[in-house]
Design goal:
The complex is a heterodimer of chains A (148) and B (107). With 148 residues, chain A is an alpha+beta fold. Chain A is built from six helices and three strands. By secondary structure, chain B is of the alpha+beta class. Chain B contains one helix and two strands; from the N terminus they run H-E-E. The chains are: A alpha+beta (148), B alpha+beta (107).
């Protein structure tokens, strides 16, 4: 069979294996990335909170890792919300800063977590994240509606 | 009506319409689920940390420092336990705990 295939090599059809390695498969397609980007940007714009999304391993102490990530997140950790997803460990952590926690009480976060984990369980990572972000931004509301 | 005409009108045309719709619905879904996640599978991708566009939120007067590593819009996240070092900040006093609340869940 191999010889038969070789006989078809005529200089016009390159049947060699590619030398350059293919890039590692990305976790999300471009369409998914666009959805995630829009969800993050819109929820941050609506709430005035700095909502970031981490997807990756969270180590053995998932809560501690998520909290230390939150501490190092961007400009103002007290106004930032970290949504940390570890699909390999099947853990989701939402961490809110002190100012963000007034807008997003733990109960609202737990509700978002509940709906997200339901979707994660069916394998819909992006849909769960997009919906969870929408729920978080709905719960937090618009910044002008709040008087701190 | 001749038999051939009958077969053409009542057999071939519906079949053609059916095939057209079958092709339209089945073909675009090909290879779409390459990156699908199944619960229980190991996650072998690099950790990523997405953040919104700088103008989007974060308290109005956000000054995003683009020189910092790992905090780009779709840049790779920092490794676990590795934080962007801020010279002259309160890092010397030990890690501040900034978390005030939140929730966790598993699936």
């Amino acid at each position: 069979m191999a010889q038969e295939l070789d006989s078809y090599v005529d200089g016009q059809h390159d049947t060699r294996e590619p030398i350059v390695e293919e890039p590692a498969p990305q976790p999300f397609s471009y369409l998914d990335l666009a959805r995630l980007d829009e969800a993050l940007t819109m929820s941050s714009r609506e709430t005035g909170l700095w909502i970031t999304l981490y997807v990756g391993d969270l180590g053995s102490d998932t809560r501690g890792t998520a909290e230390s990530l939150h501490a190092g997140s961007g400009n103002d950790p007290s106004h930032s919300v970290l949504v940390a997803v570890s699909p390999g460990q099947r853990v989701l952590e939402i961490v809110t800063g002190s100012a963000a926690a007034r807008r997003l009480p733990d109960r609202a976060c737990a509700l978002a977590v509940l709906s997200m984990t339901g979707r994660f369980g069916s394998g819909d990572l992006v849909g769960a994240i997009v919906n969870g972000l929408r729920q978080l931004s709905d719960a937090a509301g618009h910044p002008s509606a709040h008087r701190h | 009506m001749p038999v051939i005409e009958t077969v053409l009108i009542y057999g071939v045309i519906p079949l053609a319409v059916f095939l057209v719709f079958a092709v339209l619905t089945l073909l675009p879904g090909r290879g779409r689920d390459k990156t699908n996640y199944r619960p229980g599978q190991p996650w072998e991708h690099e950790a990523v940390w997405y953040e919104p566009h700088p103008a989007a939120g974060g308290h109005g007067d956000v000054e995003v420092d683009h020189g910092r590593p790992g905090l780009g819009a779709t840049a790779a996240a920092l490794a676990i336990g590795e934080h962007p070092h801020e010279p002259g900040s309160a890092d010397d006093l030990g890690p501040r705990r900034t978390a005030a609340g939140g929730a966790r869940g598993t699936w």
